[in-house]
């Protein structure tokens, strides 16, 4: 699997972008040359130069420092959304797929209803109901991403329940919880790993969309979507205010998508070449 992943050049490029993003998120506060919230109104909308490598915004804040701090915010959002959606979706998909029955049918119809809405619209509806804030953004986007994990796990469980090793486990009297945790869940990890990488990118871009619309993190926390919202007014006069946050967001999402595609090819024997 590792050799198959390494041979995929686009996957390696994606992994490199992801590693750079993680390293920047971990060390952003140490690398930031200035306080991201400190305003210098006399240096507002200054172009990139020696004093401010990526320029300043409309309040004179250093764009590079805000980008570095915002990468940590995006990492927290991505980890929170993926953890919430993965935990709830896996539990629902695992139990419903194993036991079946009317409860499974009812749960899947609810999942179908949630999947009928675009993720951004569902997250927007939830965020407008519960309010803004970092925790509320994670909750809103996590609820929107949960049905995907439930569907993936349930389909894998339905396929595995007819395998001989599951029948053997039931024959020798293994309890349902043991079968689900020790036999079914490990065999669902391949599709789940791929979904985690792809949904991580979706979580970041949806959260940025909420911040762009004013329903995301507070203004006191640097975030790429909020920086794009501030810079859209100055696209003609000071394009760097929106250019660099948008470029950062694009590269991170591209990295996770390329890495997810590479993992999918490497983990599925039918796709290996």
Describe what you observe in this structure.
With 273 residues, the protein is mainly alpha-helical. The chain has a single domain (2-23, 62-271), classed as MetI-like (MetI-like fold, Orthogonal Bundle), CATH 1.10.3720. It contains eleven helices and no strands. It has helices at residues 2-7, 9-31, 63-99, 101-115, 119-130, 134-160, 164-171, 176-184, 189-212, 224-231, 240-267. The radius of gyration is 22 Å and the shape is elongated. The N and C termini lie close together (11 Å). The model has no long low-confidence stretch (mean pLDDT 89).
Shape: elongated
Mind summarizing the main beta sheet?
Answer: none
**Gyration radius, in Å:** 22 Å
Number of helices: 11
Query: Beta-sheet strand percentage?
Result: under 5%
Low-confidence stretches: none
CATH class: Mainly Alpha
- Average pLDDT: 89
CATH structural architecture:
Orthogonal Bundle
CATH superfamily: MetI-like
Tell how many strands the DSSP assignment holds. 0
What's the N-to-C terminus distance? 11 Å
DSSP helix fraction: over 70%
Q: Number of folding domains?
A: 1
Q: Order of SSEs, N→C?
A: HHHHHHHHHHH
At CATH level 3, the topology is MetI-like fold
| Coarse structural class | mainly alpha
Task: Describe this protein with a few key phrases.
273 residues, MetI-like fold, 72% helix, 0% strand, elongated
TL;DR?
By secondary structure, the protein is mainly α.
């Amino acid at each position: 699997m590792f050799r198959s992943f390494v041979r995929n050049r686009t996957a390696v490029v994606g992994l490199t972008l992801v590693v750079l993003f993680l390293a920047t998120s971990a060390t952003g506060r140490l690398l930031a040359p200035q306080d991201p919230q400190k305003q210098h109104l006399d240096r507002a909308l200054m172009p990139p130069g020696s004093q401010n490598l990526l320029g300043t915004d409309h309040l004179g804040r250093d764009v590079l420092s805000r980008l570095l701090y915002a990468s940590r915010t995006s990492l927290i959002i991505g980890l929170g959304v993926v953890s919430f959606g993965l935990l709830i979706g896996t539990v629902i998909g695992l139990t419903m797929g194993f036991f079946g029955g009317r409860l499974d049918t009812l749960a899947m119809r609810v999942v179908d209803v949630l999947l009928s809405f675009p993720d951004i619209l569902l997250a927007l509806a939830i965020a407008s109901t519960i309010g803004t804030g970092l925790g509320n953004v994670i909750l809103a986007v996590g609820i929107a991403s949960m049905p995907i994990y439930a569907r993936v796990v349930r389909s894998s469980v339905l396929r595995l329940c007819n395998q001989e090793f599951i029948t053997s486990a039931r024959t020798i009297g293994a309890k349902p919880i043991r079968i689900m945790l020790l036999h079914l869940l490990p065999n669902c990890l391949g599709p789940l790993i791929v979904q985690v990488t792809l949904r991580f990118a979706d979580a970041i871009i949806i959260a940025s969309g909420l911040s762009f619309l004013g329903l995301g993190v507070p203004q006191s926390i640097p975030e790429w979507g909020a920086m794009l919202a501030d810079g859209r007014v100055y696209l003609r006069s000071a394009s760097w205010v929106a250019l660099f946050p948008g470029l950062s967001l694009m590269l991170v999402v591209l990295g996770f998508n390329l890495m997810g595609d590479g993992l999918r090819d490497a983990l599925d024997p039918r796709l290996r070449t």
